[in-house]
Structures are given as structure tokens and as C-alpha cells.
Amino acid sequence: MEIKELRVDNISVEKVEKGINFSTPIDQIIRPSDKLYKVIEA
């Protein structure tokens, strides 16, 4: 899954700082046991 949009308070943003709650629209169901990983290029 690739994240195409980040939202803070329903406003689209380019990046999110550590500790800020954000949302992203997705087509799949998210379960409480799912994990989110940040992948960065080395």
C-alpha cells in the first residue's frame, strides 16, 4: 500500500511531524492489530 495523501484536521498536508495525529484515505479495512511502518530509502 502506498500513501498518496496525508491529512491533519481534514486538511491535506505534505508531511507530518512526530507526535501529530493524522489520517490517510485507504481502500482497505484497518484492524486494531495492524501496524504502520515508515520505509525510507537507504
Uncertain regions spanning at least 5 consecutive residues? none
What is the overall silhouette? Answer: globular
Strand order of the largest sheet: 1-2
Q: Using the CA coordinates, give the radius of gyration.
A: 11 Å
Instruction: Give the total of domains.
Output: 1
**pLDDT averaged over residues:** 89
Structural class assignment: mainly beta
General description of the model:
The protein has one domain (1-42). The chain has no helices and two strands. Strands 1-2 form a two-stranded antiparallel sheet. With 42 residues, the protein is an all-beta fold. The protein has strands spanning 6-8, 11-13. Strand 1 (6-8) and strand 2 form a beta hairpin. It is globular, with a radius of gyration of 11 Å. The model has no long low-confidence stretch (mean pLDDT 89). The two termini are 20 Å apart.
Write the layout of secondary structure elements.
Layout lengths: L5 E3 L2 E3 L29
Antiparallel strand pairs: 1-2
